[in-house]
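Dear Dr. H.,

I hope your travels went smoothly. While you were away I took the liberty of generating a structure for the chain from your last submission, since the lab meeting agenda had it listed for discussion. I wanted you to have the full record in hand beforehand rather than looking at slides cold. The sequence, exactly as received, is reproduced here:
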Amino acid sequence: MKRLVYVFIALLILPRFASASEYRRVELSSGRVLVAQIAATRADGLDLRTPQGIVAIRFEEVQRIDPIDQTLFDQQPPMRVLVLPSPSSADPTENATVDAALRAEIATLPFTRVQDRSDVGGQSANVLPSLTACGEDTACLVGAAAGLDVDVVFVSTGSGQGRWVRAVFPTSPDADGGVPIINGTLQTVVYALLRLQAPVADAVALPGKAGPKNRTAPVPRPPRQPNPTNQAAPGAVGQP
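The corresponding predicted structure, in token form, is as follows:
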């Protein structure tokens, strides 16, 4: 029944709002705003092409869709990301290692700028102490992030196999519940939090943990050589 409802919604909004190759400003129910090109339509949602990659959304998440000119899409600034120091009670060395790996993974995203904490602009600098004081309180992070001049805030919590990463969008009323770090791969976590379709290779692994294995082409076998014991010596009968 729910699928039929989504199909009905698609039939209503697609002719008006979601023609392929057109540009739209899409506001989600979470408050996140995407300036994107319609890449494809599905029975239950849309694939939006953003400068960072394809973002898949569901129709039930769409709060508002407005047509925009391609110029607005082309002129949008890079996505600004702030990685907060982990408030985890884990070993400080572990926290620093994970924070550095998280920044490195986010920096691989196209058209993305990882902001330094001293370069978040204007009154945002005054918000940082409040964010740090929130610790692992997600509701507190959401309230404090509203004053930041960035697009998304990442912070890792927990320790060891219980390490999670959360993303907070300053324009959103809620924070993402977080994604656990599974198999030591941060790439999957970052892409999941940003709703991006992730590539399957070149993931950044946490130090000390194995990342995805790279498959190599099979090594061709050398041609079989004749057995010397079965060869007649030169000059023997039957040989020139």
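Two observations you may find useful: Residues 25 and 141 are 26 Å apart (CA to CA). Helices lie at 2-17, 70-74, 92-107, 128-134, 138-145, 186-193.

With kind regards,
E. W.
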